[in-house]
Amino acid sequence: MTYWKFSLFFVILSVFALIAQSQIVNPCELNNEDTGVYYNFTKLAGKDWTGTGSTSGAKYHFSICSSNEFCNDSAVQLKPSSVCAPRPTMYTFGNQNMIQISPRTDDEDGGVVDYQTGSTCGGQNNVRKTTINILCTGEESVQSITEIGNCQVIINVTAACGNHMSSKKGGLGGGWIFVIILLSVSAAYIIFGTIINWKVRHHEGANIFPNIDFWRGFGTLITDGVLFIRGKISGTAYHGYQQV
């Protein structure tokens, strides 16, 4: 297999990689289909929000869509911790790796961030968890922290988000733009190549397709490319690949 064939194989792999990347969903993005508003709560990440629990009087530290630096520095288990409080020992009430975003249940502008910890609470079947109700007003403030028993916390905040930070997500990503361009060029290659082979070179039948011999061996090309890459990774020579 010549170098130019391997280059084509690499381009094909790149296309599939770009498509796969475009399908990756940011866990802190929310596209509310009912209102048509796109929210990117990652813009709220990194801040150390604080507030006082309604029952215990404990001081809570929490972050939205990121781990909380104070919590991670306070000998809290189940890191990376996004929510923590001394109850009376410093406990994690939300793990950054166990986050879920959903729309608000009312008609207000904002979203809901749910954190869980995966650990049982007080020997019961419950787990410590936190619900953060975000109301997008353009101003950042902790409105209330309501404690439900020892395991659940409901936090209400106002923040600069949603319409105040980002319009509805639209348009195509870079990966899809590349794919569209590639498909357009490929279509032009097939159409004009076929016309030239038919009218200028006077080919007939399947031979009017441009570079028909190459495409007949396309399956072998893919196989050679896979074996070549595997040989490079494993350090074994692949003799089917010939340098020119």
Protein described:
The protein is α+β, with helices and mostly antiparallel strands and 244 residues long. The protein contains five helices and eleven strands. It has helices at residues 3-22, 69-72, 174-200, 212-216, 218-234, and strands at 29-32, 37-40, 49-52, 59-62, 81-86, 90-95, 99-103, 110-120, 127-136, 141-148, 152-159. Helix 1 (3-22) crosses helix 3 and helix 1 packs across helix 5 (218-234). The longest helix is centred in the C-terminal third of the chain and has 27 residues, at 174-200. It comes from Heterostelium pallidum (strain ATCC 26659 / Pp 5 / PN500) (Cellular slime mold). This is Autophagy-related protein 27. InterPro entries: Autophagy-rel_prot_27, Man6P_isomerase_rcpt-bd_dom_sf, MRH_dom. One of its GO terms (biological process) is protein transport.
